[in-house]
Amino acid sequence: MSSSPAASGTGPVTDPAPLSLCAREPHVPADRLVAEMVPPPRFDSVRFSTYIPDPNQPSQTEAVSVLEGFAAGLGGSAAPGRRRLFGFGRAARQAPSGPRGVYLDGGYGVGKTHLLASLWHATPAEPALKAFGTFVELTNLVGALGFQQTVRTLSGHRLLCIDEFELDDPGDTVLVSTLLGKLVEAGVALAATSNTLPGKLGEGRFAAADFLREIQGLSAHFRAQRIDGEDYRHRGLPEAPPPFSEEQVTAVAHATEGASLDAFPALLEHLARVHPSRYGALTDGLRAVCLTGVQPVPDQSTALRLVVLADRLYDREVPVLASGLPFDRLFSEEMLKGGYRKKYFRAISRLTALARDAGTLATSG
Question: Rounded to the nearest 5 degrees, what angle is found at the Cα of 180, between the Cα atoms of 179 and 186?
Answer without folding.
Answer: 100
